[in-house]
Amino acid sequence: MNFRISQSADQVKKTNDLQDKKNKKDKAGKIYTINECGRCNVKSKKLFESGDFVYNKNVGKCEKCGSSQLTIMIVEDKIEKN
């Protein structure tokens, strides 16, 4: 008896690539911009917006002392979906 392979190697690779892309989307988290006060060093976090970049000055006022803030990092909060 001869069995015919139902999928070619290219089809298997495409299927695997699509599954990998889906898995990456499931593991994606939210991206945040972390700002720090120049005077009292209080840190704050906000959702990343287009145009945010590290060492961006005067991104807002500190809630504690009112001084200007500096963007110190941009991070991703990874949450894996099961």
Would you mind describing this structure in some detail?
The chain has about 80 residues and is α+β, with helices and mostly antiparallel strands. It has a domain at about 30-80. The chain contains one helix and four strands, in the order H-E-E-E-E. It has a four-stranded antiparallel sheet with strand order 2-1-4-3, with no helix packed on it. Strand 1 (about 30-35) and strand 2 (about 45) form a beta hairpin. The longest helix has 19 residues, at about 10-25. The radius of gyration is 23 Å and the shape is elongated. The two termini are about 40 Å apart. The model has no long low-confidence stretch (mean pLDDT about 80).
Estimated radius of gyration: 23 Å
- Outline the low-pLDDT stretches: none
Task: Give the end-to-end Cα distance, rounded to a whole number of Å.
Answer: 41 Å
Q: Strand count, sense and closure of the main sheet? A: 4 strands, antiparallel
What structural class do you assign from the helix and strand content?
Answer: alpha+beta
**Strand arrangement in the largest pleated sheet:** 2-1-4-3
**What are the secondary-structure elements, in order, as H or E?**
HEEEE
Summarize the structure.
By secondary structure, the chain is α+β, with helices and mostly antiparallel strands. The chain has one helix spanning 9-27, and strands at residues 30-37, 43-47, 57-61, 68-77.
Question: What distinguishing features does this structure have?
Answer:
82 residues; alpha+beta; 4-stranded antiparallel sheet; 23% helix; 34% strand; elongated
